[in-house]
């Protein structure tokens, strides 16, 4: 049964209070509240059926050859194009301005990537950022309760761009949400390939529990399996500066607090911070103080100030937001790449300010990917004579060499005579 809590929330004051100034001022603050589904309802919801139907329609359109969709079940899950990703990013920004769905989009990206197991080499068995979370079987995992709402919000954007993969869309939406909430710029790359069948989804149980018997060792078990370290565990936990926990979804948190009873978005739940649509370091400040009954501290949050190794980072982030932003941006980018298969193999960036992608590998077609050490060596050799592996050398470069050799030969023959 779907519970549509569609109270038309007057959010003008609430949204202004929660959003970073830049977003709040640019936003029309009068809107209708969004959908809210309980985990049980999601399992049998018409909404989910509609999504599945929409995904199946994409397949039918592909197989009849009328529209070249590369979506959920298309035979070739090619990677996204940079132009379409950039347009999709603008659409996501608009979505954020009207739905205030930053937190759930971050959680969606994290739950798609966080199934990665570094001990499994094969793709997609290793899990990770491969778009598997669009399939009903994975959405039904207990840890993913409520995430069908995030998929529903993104599906129209997916339908609009024929080349966009779900894997890229989920990570694009998450990184854009962090940035739009006032967080750091994430050095993202794109080109993730989608899995094509629900049978390729990871088994249930790869994501962390909020209340395990030994929170520190549980976090290490789960995050080390993803190839992440203590610093990254603490930095990534800082994403809980955004959003709320809802008892009807995860079983954690209060039904509502003074910070959540008016939304924005569907009201209710318990947030970790007072301004739960603003990305900053208040998560670390608030869980350290633990003085506000209305703010949530999960056992896996509390342990960040109890375990000696975690504590070192948590204390630092509580007093130094710049350090938190720097480490968060790096850890988020790493998380977003876990388990992903990229096409092209090295992925590509959407922002010119980031280093140009390395293309020397294309000259070694048929050979395995060059190691990072080898790429660095080749780059250093190119740069040694003023070139770059990303750009072909100018033809006059070779002309200059010929002239130098000719002059040397002439000088030598004159000297000898
Ligand atoms: C460290 C282990 C983690 C545990 C045990 C955990 C657990 C939870 C739980 C229980 C919720 C509430 C879900 C609900 O009731 O709707 C939640 C929400 C959330 N989580 Fe985590 N989480 C963890 C790590 C992360 C990481 C690494 C990220 C992102 C990088 C993240 C981002 C979020 C966000 C943004 C929400 C709010 C979603 C919303 O408001 O709809 N979490 N998490």
TrEMBL record:
Residues 162-347 form the Plant heme peroxidase family profile domain. Residues 239-271 are annotated as: Disordered. Its EC number is 1.11.1.11. Pfam families: peroxidase. GO terms for molecular function: L-ascorbate peroxidase activity; lactoperoxidase activity; metal ion binding. It comes from the Eukaryota. It catalyses: 2 a phenolic donor + H2O2 = 2 a phenolic radical donor + 2 H2O; L-ascorbate + H2O2 = L-dehydroascorbate + 2 H2O. InterPro entries: Ccp1-like, Haem_peroxidase, Haem_peroxidase_sf, Peroxidase_I, Peroxidases_heam-ligand_BS. GO terms for biological process: hydrogen peroxide catabolic process. Belongs to the peroxidase family. Ascorbate peroxidase subfamily. Plays a key role in hydrogen peroxide removal. This is L-ascorbate peroxidase 7, chloroplastic. It comes from Castilleja foliolosa.
């Amino acid at each position: 049964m779907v519970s549509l809590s569609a109270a038309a929330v007057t959010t003008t004051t609430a949204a202004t209070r929660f959003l970073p100034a830049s977003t709040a001022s640019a936003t029309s603050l009068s809107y209708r509240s969004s959908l809210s589904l309980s985990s049980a309802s999601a399992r049998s919801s018409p909404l989910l059926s509609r999504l599945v139907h929409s995904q199946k329609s994409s397949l039918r359109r592909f197989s009849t050859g009328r529209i070249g969709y590369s979506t959920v079940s298309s035979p070739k899950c090619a990677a996204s194009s940079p132009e379409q990703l950039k347009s999709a990013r603008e659409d996501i920004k608009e979505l954020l301005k009207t739905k205030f769905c930053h937190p759930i989009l971050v959680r969606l990206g994290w739950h798609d990537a966080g199934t990665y197991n570094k001990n499994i080499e094969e793709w997609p068995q290793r899990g990770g950022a491969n778009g598997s979370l669009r399939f009903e079987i994975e959405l039904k995992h207990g840890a993913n309760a409520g995430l069908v709402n995030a998929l529903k919000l993104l599906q129209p954007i997916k339908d609009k761009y024929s080349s966009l993969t779900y894997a890229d869309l989920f990570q694009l939406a998450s990184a854009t949400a962090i940035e739009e909430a006032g967080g750091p710029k994430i050095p993202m790359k794109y080109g993730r390939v989608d899995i094509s069948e629900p049978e390729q989804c990871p088994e249930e149980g790869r994501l962390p529990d909020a209340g395990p018997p030994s929170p520190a060792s549980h976090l290490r078990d789960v995050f080390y399996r993803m190839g992440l370290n203590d610093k990254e565990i603490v930095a990534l936990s800082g994403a809980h500066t955004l959003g709320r926990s809802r008892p009807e979804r995860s079983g954690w948190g209060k039904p509502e607090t003074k910070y959540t009873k008016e939304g924005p978005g569907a009201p209710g739940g318990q947030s970790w911070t007072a301004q739960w649509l603003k990305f900053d370091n208040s998560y670390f400040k608030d869980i350290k103080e633990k003085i506000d009954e209305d703010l949530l501290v999960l056992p896996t949050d509390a342990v960040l100030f109890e375990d000696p190794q975690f504590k070192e980072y948590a204390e630092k982030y509580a007093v130094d937001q710049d350090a938190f932003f720097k480490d968060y941006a790096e850890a988020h980018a790493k998380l977003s790449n876990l388990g992903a298969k990229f096409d092209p193999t090295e992925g590509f960036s959407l922002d010119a300010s980031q280093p140009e992608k390395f293309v020397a590998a294309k000259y070694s077609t048929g050979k395995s990917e060059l190691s990072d050490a080898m790429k660095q060596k080749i780059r250093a050799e190119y740069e040694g004579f003023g070139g770059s592996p990303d750009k072909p050398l100018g033809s006059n470069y070779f002309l200059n060499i010929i002239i130098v050799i000719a002059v040397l030969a002439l000088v030598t023959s004159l000297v000898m005579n």
